[in-house]
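Good morning N.,

You mentioned wanting to compare the apo and holo forms, so I went ahead and generated the holo version with zinc ion. This is what I fed in:
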Amino acid sequence: MVLNIFLIILTIILGLCVGSFLNVVIYRLPKNMSIAKPKSHCINCDYQLEWYDNIPVLSYIILGGKCRKCKTKISPRYIVVELLNAILWFVALMLNTNLIFASIQSNYIMLIVYFVVISTLICVAFCDFENMEIPDEFQIILLIAGIISMMFGDVNSKVFGFILGGGFFALFAGLYYLIKRREGLGFGDIKLMAVLGLILGFENTLITIILSALSGAMVLSVLAIINRKKNKEERSKEYPFAVFIVPSAILAMFVGDIIVNWYLSLFMIV
Ligand SMILES: [Zn+2]
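and this is what came out, ligand included:
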């Protein structure tokens, strides 16, 4: 019990600190800036952040979301990413250590793989949203995570997940291009779905594809209605599809087994 509480607190604190680091990665990696140097500074006045300006969540709240020196507003993305990373790490810990569900076996190597996958996916979603691009560094980290996860899961399911994820999106992108004569899904989305297939396995990849397609279709049709009065250029602009893939994949990773069992149970009632 004491160990559990210690593990939970440690996970949340580490989750917040890593979340703080992810903010640096999300800002600097797409701009090809070094992640290690220089120290974090204000984009407006160049004020170098001291250690007490860098405490996750707390510094943001104490400073009221503004730079200590010039009072320029700091993007709420900083606190959102920190909290999101800590919350998702906490959920992964609870699911993976039998603290809530007994269905998932404790495996600390897989728990660390889940942590890495969650943090990488947060970066993928925010980079795609802000820059319409998924840096290859993230795809490589996810690929390595997928290969490690093959040691602990059903290898066949993972290989089929890889083929299904990459294949389905490649097919969709190809058909879309043939019909509409413009790019609907980027190559980054196809690669992302393939490596996620390796991590998630066949069934959870299927769930991810369905959830991301449904949520994407819903949000994009609402946007299309809002934008229908705007000019053609505005209407045909690209959308960051990884923003829909990432939450779907995390949901499938967490509760995919429960969704599959529930769906199968529908057919077993006589
Ligand atoms: Zn400033």
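Residues 1-106 form one domain.

Happy to go through it together on a call whenever suits you.

Best,
F.
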